Amino acid sequence: MHHAVYQSAIIYIEDRLDTSLPRKQAVERLRKAANKGAYSCPECHRLLRVRDGERGLFFAHNPGEACELQESNATYSHQTKREAQHHSVLREMIHEVLKNQEKIRPSLSVEFGYIAKAGQKWSHLPDIVMSHKGVETAISVLTNVDRMKDQKLVKKLRERNAYFKNKGLDTLWFIDVQEQVIDEKTRAIYLWESELDLSSKTPQDEAWDKLLLDLSEDTNQLFSVMSYLSPSPFLPSIDTRSLFYIHSMSESIEFSVHRFIADQKIAPFQAFAVNEGYRMNISTALSLQENLALHHEEQEAKEHEHFRALYEKRLQMWKAEQEFLQAAAQAAAEAETIARAEAHARYEAELQVIYEKARNEQIAYGTSKPMSYNGLKELLKVHLKMTQPEQMLLWTTYVGRQGLINFDRLWELAQQVTSFSAFEELLRKEPRHTKR
Q: What is the per-residue pLDDT across 325-366, written as a single tens digit (0 to 9) for each?
């Protein structure tokens, strides 16, 4: 295990190393202190030894003295084996800030998860358990996610969250900022599925919901005005959620909060960035009143004001653009109507030319000489846009096999329709012509 009781307080083993010495000497000094009884188990209070090996530096019971805490630590160590090396540093700093508030808040209790639940044989353990006014919260830190790990991790995290909730705990996750991907120009946040699952709904998110609904109840308009391109055909309702990222500094950590509306809930996961995100120091983020703050009150007000002003400015531009597009569409429709009229006039003129030609050749309807097939064909090319395959079909099927040889009659039928397929319907019903 990595924690022990030292002078009535629980300490982290790495914090006890004297950094002014070479590591080997510092470990040896720590080992000597342990041998003289400086460190004891938080659970069974037996003295602990110091071990340093492949698993790193850790406290261990004497042979035959292992207790339930060691079993709980084994479960936790296996669970966090996948995490990045700095995971333990982030965990310790969060624990320290929360633990310090116990002194001024009697209703607050903060402990490492594997210590708080030692002896209860939990299958999953949070990094930290915070109890405040009878409400327990499982606080965990997520690091070291990539595409392949995310696919395997999602199921484990869902199981872990469900397990904590079944045990009666609220859940709160902090995510290593290395996983953050935001396109500030398009207000798009790209997420791992695990990030989407670990988002939170806070009172500040509800305040954002109220603001957004006040500006526009139509998600499509909201996205359009803010120039966000949704990849999903089914736009979501307004439901703001939060992600909390951890930024590792040289000697401290900071938190940033990002509000978003989950959009595409299949890979690649994407969301609309409600705010630009802002940083706050750890003491601000983890200050406890009724609940953990997890926000900076003045900054939240500024972000609300900034979003409202930006939306209203862009809304005016968007409305002007819509009016322009509507006018352009109307102009295009009017131009299309004129073009169609002009095309119809050209068609009538072309058909008239063919009529005149047919009349001159004495093949038109009503002359002494009946219409020829060539005359019919020329008229049908213009009137029905008859193609070469359709010409062959007319000749072989309806003229040849069905015996429709009165071409004047066929032209009468053709003038009743506007397509060759409709012309065929009439031809199928037409009786055989025995005379021309």
A: 999 999 999 898 888 888 878 877 877 777 667 656 544 444
122 Cβ contact partners less than 8 Å away, ≥ 6 residues apart: 72, 75, 163, 167
| 263: phi then psi, degrees, rounded to nearest 5 | -110, -80
Counting the structural domains of the chain, the total is 3
Give the number of C-alpha atoms closer than 13 A to the C-alpha of residue 415, restricted to the C-beta side.
11
Write down the pTM of the prediction. 0.70
Indicate the residue among 13, 37, 66 that finishes a domain. Answer: 66
Tell me: the pLDDT tens digits for 379-400? Answer: 898 889 899 999 999 999 998 8
Q: How many CB atoms are located within 10 Å of the residue 374 CB?
A: 12
Q: Domain check: are 60 and 173 in the same one?
A: no
pLDDT in the model for residue 196: 87
Q: Which two tokens stand for residue 149?
A: 């790990």
Q: Which of 181-185, 221-225, 250-254, 377-381 has the highest mean pLDDT?
A: 221-225
Strand (E) or helix (H) holding 45: none
What is the pLDDT averaged over residues 250-273? 88
* 37 Rama sector, left if φ>0, alpha if ψ -120 to 50, beta otherwise: left
Last-in-domain residue among 10, 31, 66: 66
CA angle 296, 300, 304 (to 5 degrees): 175
Cis peptide before 268 (omega within 30 of 0): yes
Q: What are phi and psi of 45, to 5 degrees?
A: 70, 10
Do residue 155 and residue 241 come from a single domain?
A: yes
Instruction: Give CA separation, 384 vs 352, 380, 411, 424, in Å.
Output: 15, 5, 11, 11
| Contact present, 177 and 246 (Cβ < 8 Å) | yes
Which two three-digit tokens encode residue 20?
């002014």
Distance CA 274, CA 266 (A): 20
Can you give the residue range of the structural domain that contains 410? 361-429
What Rg do the C-alpha atoms of the chain give, in angstroms?
A: 40
Q: Structure tokens of 31?
A: 């080992």
